[in-house]
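Feature request disguised as a bug report, sorry. It would help if multi-protein outputs had a clear separator. Right now it looks like this:
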Amino acid sequence: MEEIIRFVMLAQSAHFTVTELCEQFGISRKTGYKHLERYAAGGLKGLQVRSHRPHQFPQRTDTAVEALILAERRLHRTWGPKKLHKVLEVKHGIESPPARSTIGEILRRHGVSMRHRRKPGAYVALNEGLTVPTRPNHVWTVDFKGWFLLGNGQRCDPLTVCDRYSHYLLACRAQPNQQFKGTLQTFKALMRQAGVPEVIRVDHGTPFASIGLGRLSSLSIWWIEQGIAVEFTRLASPQDNGSHERMHRDLKAEAINPPSVNAAAQQRRFERWQHTYNHDRPHESLNQQRPVEFYQPSSRRLNEHDKPLVYPVDFEVKRISVSGFLAHAGESYHVGEAFAHKRVGLHLNSNGQTELHFANVHLGNLTHGSAGRFRPAAYIAPPNHNPLAK
């Protein structure tokens, strides 16, 4: 600014030509005459730096649309520009909503969003041994969200069940604990309504797994009796159930923080969030469509009468004792209390080894132990290995 005023004052002194001054100050003659014209029209005030901001904004987002974006963001704190763009189209009927980048700028301008750089290489590839679903109810993923305390001081363990193919959230239950009986009752109620899946995928936590043969627990044994294949993720590998973990993150942000006053209020909150997740929330993996557009209940029905397992004719069928022991050939083998009263099959293979099976799961072989007594080998068959009729 000081240089512009000095240029104009020297030009007004009539001791220099405009061409000479422009060469001296390193500016073009057009710029020099512009400064002189502005000085003649407005004096020193006319030389002030002017804003280059346009007077009109033909592409500016309509105020009403911007208000809708902010309102939806306040309702759903974890939704980003992609989801909000789809909501403007589907929910509000806007034919040409603002671009995703524009929505992102609106959120940042109002202080409700910040740029986050994604950490590269956070997770490795999905376990190749896991089933890739190709239809609804092919694979259900099951897990407990980390427990928390309600407003009245009681513990809440959210149990979530999701259809892996459609991302449809089948259940979000505020359980008082992670014990077998309560979890079993929840699954019975769910399967009476939604049917039975082909595969259930779980981690190694309670009550889904145990340290016994086949990692099977009382709950996973019940699943197998229903004709469901149980699929365990790798130890300490949450990426094997990545979409479920991602859902838990949104659940915590939108329906848990802060917790409700009691279990009934928390369950109502879970149900509202579940409906939004299934019917309103666009999913990027579904090309910004909603899970309800892909999901339908299973045609496989719950076996209410617990029909006994049927083994091939060349299998010797045994029943496990109430304390979890198997009696065979004058010996007693500890199989596990989870198998109490269950029927297992013994099969003599071509190598002369006695295999122990439960339904279509090869639990192990009866082999000599170091103490000179027979013990089942801790061998787990690969998925879909040697399936047996039920």
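(second protein starts here, but nothing in the output says so)
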Amino acid sequence: MLFLSTSRVYPIAGLRALPFERRGDRLALPQGSAGDGWSAAAGISEAFPLAGSRSMYGATKLASELLIEEYREMYGLRAVINRCGVLAGPWQMGKVDQGFIVLWMARHVYGGALAYTGFGGEGLQVRDILHVDDLYDLLTLQLRELDRHCGATYNVAGGTERSVSLRELTQWCQRLTGRFLQIGQVAETRPADVPFYVGDSRSVQAATGWQPQRKLDRLLDDIHRWLIDQRARLEPILGT
């Protein structure tokens, strides 16, 4: 089994307590700073403390991880756990609560409302993004050597080089589409929102030799071209 878990297993309060600072159009960790399971250079590692609440979604994923570990130990289930950050690419049907990269681009292509929600409504919150094709490449490597990776838990993410804030994402979408939307602002932060998550994938990279190959501009261009090429099929689903 290759289990696709999530970065949402890491507790909300712990992520919110990191020492963020504003840097341009995004939140960032102070240069050179580091702590228990995190660093400004690489992001959040598998060692980040798990004590605390993490949303119902994150809790179900963590519970699944624990059950997998029990089955692995008691029944010999061969299993690897991959804690994925934000995944994106063509054919992801982006909605407000899932797939926000596609949603943001689709609204710029087809029209519709968007808003920066939470943390003052400024759009500074940051996520790293991984192209679905890069995830596929990793899963292929893991399946080839499943015995060697059995029992491992890895963070799988695009890392700092593929991180983006909502405000920066808006600028990317404007450049690609030539369309400028008026982005709304909702200052109130929802209970499960986190201001920053960039995954540290050094463990899985060291174990497999895998490295993400598609940069953020390639990912966004792939999504944009897909939305244009498949407009007749997608606009009724992803449009306003």
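Even a blank line would do. Unrelated, but nice: The mean pLDDT is 97.
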